[in-house]
From TrEMBL, chains A, B:
InterPro entries the UniProt entry points to: CinA, CinA-like_C, CinA_C, CinA_KH, Competence-induced_CinA, MoaB/Mog-like_dom_sf, MoaB/Mog_dom
CDD domains membership: cinA
Membership in a protein family: Belongs to the CinA family.
Lineage: superkingdom: Bacteria
Organism: Chloracidobacterium validum
Name the record gives this protein: CinA-like protein
SUPFAM superfamilies from the UniProt entry: CinA-like, Molybdenum cofactor biosynthesis proteins
Chain ranges of the MoaB/Mog domain: 5-172
């Protein structure tokens, strides 16, 4: 199976303010053709670096795709550097020049002499016509290497790829299909997940496995290669099935859904409703639940009770309970959950109290200590967590463990 | 002026789903030190490609920074490949191992044997301590070349850079200083801002000006280059002062503060308190206000009242008012604000009601219609907005206009 490299060209992509998004789109297109992307590079309008980068890429990869640097200005250097690296002289193509002239005429604009540069094509290159701009793209072959040169603006690059480049790449890609599957895991750390599943996935080179820690949860990506989608799916079924067996109920999502979508789905299926009572998460659990379209069907209300007085007034948490156990305690988390459930008349109530920091921690109750209470019709329960990180991370993790605890109540 | 390359390592960054955002942050930091970024590369967990990429980078650039691939799992290969490229054996560092063990003990988690790998350090490398994770970073010198190896998670990478790497790079950077200033603007669109300030900034090539539309607000970045910080600041003062004059009170932040930080600052200075009553934003305004450390001083409580019954029960919004004007109306927004203020006993109450979509819109009340009510001691007022975008964008924009309205009440 051939692999590709993508090179994005343009000094603006080396500032803190811009990132190369073309390569994400191109990667999806290439993967669908069965072509993996092995490296992506961003270089500025900088001849020596671009030259070096192109040479390295052509040495290492049979397919190299560049985007950008085909404009009419001085700092658009792609054409020139490509010609030099491929050792082919630039030749003015009269038909391309006519076309560019014609595009200016249609728009009633004068053509600046700069634009003539865009009609220069390295000898024996195949020009790719540009229906949405003046810069033609290029395909250059050298032995078993392909260099595909595309313009930077997505509205020019994308149709050029789908209408012209895809047809060119299909026969190279052979009959290989790539399929991916994603599992999301809650309640376990990255290394805990890895030590459980490494004995399984290390036995396979196809599918490949990637483990990601994504802010608050572990994500597993599996990619299989096969002559057909069905065969790739069979490979995935075998490996992913074993991983699912080992991780059990810690896998909350099998098709990329978020935890709040899964909780919403479970609530909807059961016809349940939910209300939240939050202290340290400050509304984040309510926000995540209501991120899901249609959540008004099951999310009835949320309370953010920062002060002790608010906990008593809004959630009926007895003042004595707070003074006896402290606002951050299992007892108060349960009372918050039960209080919001009773007041809102929902099936489930969730209470979260904790210390998000940076201040407010003590030896006995450190920053990161979080209690989550869950109240149902017949049972009120809680769990205690010590969460790592700064304020932002602790709040995110606290919302995650709270939503995960709601999810797990449906497993009982 | 020395230049740098950045290499992001991780197969997930070569999928269509993830982009390397660390490099944007690192570029801003390096630029502030007077170091330009000449090339950025993304490689997977792929030993031959990483090896080749590292060798190329070290041949071409005096400073090479890598992020990622330092985790405890099989596919974290950075440590191993760096050792090979720099021709130095990996040595187990007992003090780092003790530290990692200690971090697990604190959290009450078992350390998996995998984590021992993170204590392997190439000979003569300087380890960088990681206060937010288990993987130490590394600095390796070879002649006039510097290889700086950082972890991938931003919460680990950023403090490691600012607290340890910056000090190391400062002496290398020489006598050019880059200084940047950021203004954040609310209540105006990108093109409206640009048409007002383009006549000013186009007269300057130093500082340079970049206009960004960042999810819910316009951000202006100004960067000046000079032999000293003072001279760069003088250049910035001249241009930025003129821009501030033209944009007036629409500029809410002059030093990169977020809108919720600015609102918190104003509340603190005045000794005011605030409570929120949210419908369509579902807790997002409370979440943003409580993102700020110390917000418990002024944020007393928040209510997320999705159902009409909850609006009446929790916020004393008269049921007749809802039936007469509808839940999404100026009257209900004001009643929510006044209700939460009265119940919580705060100086300011905020009410937000609207239609975030995708469903629930009508011709008369379309998706994106949002009313924000503000209640103070003597006045209750509201503003109406029609916000563009999908559910997520509408909710973000609604939280932004609500916080901005709170900010503007202090300007009266």
């Amino acid at each position: 199976m051939p692999h590709a490299e993508i090179i994005a060209i343009g000094s603006e992509l080396l500032t803190p303010f811009r990132s190369d998004t073309n390569s994400l789109w191109l990667t999806a297109e290439l993967n669908a053709l069965g072509i993996a992307v092995r490296r992506k590079t961003v270089v500025g309008d900088d001849e020596p670096f671009l030259e070096e980068t192109l040479r390295d890429a052509l040495r290492n990869s049979p397919i190299v795709i560049t985007t950008g640097g085909l404009g009419p200005t001085e700092d658009d250097i792609t054409r020139k550097v490509v010609a030099r690296v491929m050792q082919r002289p630039l030749v003015l193509q009269p038909d391309i020049l006519d076309r560019i002239r014609h595009q200016f005429e249609i728009r009633g604009l004068p053509m600046s002499p700069n634009n003539e540069r865009q009609a220069l094509v390295p000898r024996d290159a195949t020009p790719l016509s540009n229906d949405y701009g003046t810069a033609p793209g290029l395909i250059l072959r050298e032995g078993d290497r392909q260099l595909i040169v595309l313009p930077g603006p997505p509205r020019e690059m994308r149709p050029m790829f789908t209408q012209q480049v895809r047809l060119h790449l299909e026969p190279l890609a052979g009959h290989v299909r790539l399929r991916t599957r994603t599992l999301r895991v809650a309640g376990m750390g990255e290394s805990q997940v890895d030590s459980l599943i490494a004995p399984i996935y290390t036995r396979y080179t196809n599918p490949t496995t990637t483990i990601l820690f994504n802010n608050t949860e572990v994500e597993l990506h599996f990619t299989a290669k096969a002559p057909s989608d069905d065969e790739a799916d069979t490979l995935l079924d075998e490996l992913v099935g074993q991983v699912e067996d080992v991780l059990g109920a810690n896998v909350f999502s099998h098709r990329g859904e978020t935890l709040e979508q899964i909780v919403g789905l479970r609530l909807t299926v059961k016809g349940y409703t939910i209300a939240t009572a939050e202290s340290c998460t400050g509304g984040l659990v309510a926000k995540r639940l209501t991120d899901v379209p249609g959540s008004s069907q099951y999310f009835l209300e949320g309370v953010v009770a920062y002060s002790n007085a608010a906990k008593t007034r809004l959630l009926d948490v007895p003042a004595e309970l707070i003074s006896e156990h402290g606002a951050v305690s299992a007892e108060v988390a349960e009372a918050m959950a039960a209080g919001v459930k009773a007041r809102a008349g929902t099936t489930i109530g969730v209470g979260i109290t904790g210390i998000a920091g940076p201040d407010g921690g003590t030896d006995e109750k450190p920053v990161g200590l979080v209690y989550v209470g869950i109240a149902g019709d017949f049972v009120v329960t809680h769990r205690k967590f010590i969460l790592p990180g700064d304020r932002d991370r602790i709040r995110h993790l606290a919302s995650q463990v709270a939503l995960d605890l709601v999810r797990r109540t449906f497993l009982l």
